[in-house]
Amino acid sequence: MSDRTRVSLNAPRARVLFVLIGLVSLLSACGLEPGGERALDDDDDDGGELDWFPVDFDVVWTGDILLADRALPALEAEGYLYPFEHLWELSSADYLIGNLEGPITTIETPHNPNQTWSYNALPAAAGALAEFGFDAMSLANNHLMDRGPQGVADTRSYLLDEGIEPFGAGSDAEEASVPLLFTTPFGVVAVVGMSETGTYVPQAGPGSTGSHTFSPARIQDSRTKAVSAGADYVIAFVHWGNNYDTVESIQQTRAQLFADAGFDLVIGHGAHVPQEVDIIDGMVVLYSLGNFTFGTEGRFDSSYPGYGLVARTVLGLSGIESIELQCILTDNDRVHYQPAPCPQDEAEEVLSQLGPWVEVTDGVGRVSP
Questions:
Q1: What pTM did the predictor assign?
Q2: Exposed e or buried b for every residue in 345-363, given b needs 16+ CB within 10 A?
Q3: Is 246 exposed, middle or buried, given 0-12, 13-18 or 19+ CB atoms closer than 10 A?
Q4: Within 10 Å of residue 217's Cβ, how many Cβ atoms?
Q5: Neighbours of 37 (CB within 10 A)
Q6: Domains of the chain
Q7: What is the Cα–Cα distance from 236 to 114, expressed in whole angstroms?
Q8: Distance (Å, rounded) from C-alpha 235 to C-alpha 223?
Q9: What is the pLDDT of residues 13-53, one digit of tens each?
Q10: pLDDT at 5 > cutoff 90
Q11: Which of the four pLDDT bands, split at 50, 70 and 90, describes residue 55?
Q12: What is the 3-state secondary structure (H, E, C) of the chain?
């Protein structure tokens, strides 16, 4: 984390550290060590396992998710957990967040008949996402309104029924701008979902459904609202960029706005392929994770092959301590709607192309904030 962020969040973080240091001392006095188990004494005969004191808290972030379209025959034949078969290790994350590309609703008629690609997933998708372990889903993307305002309302309802928190869009500007908040042993994390505006993606307004979209004022206001709600870390989870392309200058401009506003991290998606990693004024920017479990054929080629990224942010006593990147195979001609971890040689090639801030070791990329 940058010095700028440490100063702005110093008071709440100091309280967290004070409590944790005291707890470490107490555990040591009781024969426990952080991150491990106390050895059972002879008279500890209950046979139970003691809780571990956490040395870190990991949040896993995935790119675009669509359990529908060309994947539907496989989903109907094999079940909605079919796309996750090779990815189950990710479900052990302390907190798991993805981007839901398209509404979950039984409405099948496109809201905008002139839209080239328009999707909806059936309600079974929400149950599968919950069973896999997702805790939250951003709705801020260009397929939000594929089934209109009712489709957005249905999506939020189905997710909430399954215990998944939707964020980044809503029935009005107030609902759309509410940050996702969750508590960790090392402080409160706020996640702000935002997207570009477009022909089919309106900014939510007074009484009108839409996304929480980019503007300098909304970026600054989002961080202010998050900190006012008690956040110690504020992360932007954003949908931007051209499909199957490199980073645009407008993405870089917006990334600078997030840095200027005091955000701790920006994680992007929307291009369907990985994009480079950068650090701006001490703030890490993952421009695009690419796809996760995305049920279309895709338009991959030799210039932009079918790979995606999964990001793992590790929180500890010193804040956001590391960011790890894992490569996954997402070309459905190859994986048949079942993405899987990349072989090590492919992973190292993909990760090495993300820029100088990424250190690649044994097929895993690491970025140190």
A1: 0.87
A2: eebbbbbeebbebbebeeb
A3: middle
A4: 8
A5: 12
A6: 3-38+48-367 (3.60.21.10)
A7: 31
A8: 9
A9: 333 443 444 444 433 444 444 444 333 334 444 444 445 55
A10: no
A11: confident
A12: CCHHHHHHCHHHHHHHHHHHHHHHHHHHHCCCCCCCCCCCCCCCCCCCCCCCCCCCEEEEEEEEEECCHHHHHHHHHHCCCHHHCCCHHHHHCCEEEEEECCCECCCCCCCCCCCCCCCCECCHHHHHHHHHCCCEEECCCCCCCCCHHHHHHHHHHHHHHCCCEEECEECCHHHHHCCEEEEECCEEEEEEEEECCECCECECECCECEECECCHHHHHHHHHHHHHCCCCEEEEEEECCCCCCCCCHHHHHHHHHHHHHCCCEEEEECCCCCEEEEEECCEEEEEECCEEEECCCCCCCCCCCCEEEEEEEEEECCEEEEEEEEEEECCHHHHCCCCEECCHHHHHHHHHCCCCCCEEECCEEEECC
In this structure, what token pair is assigned to residue 57? Answer: 């808290």
The pLDDT of residue 368 is 82
Residues 102, 155: Cα–Cα separation, whole Å: 9
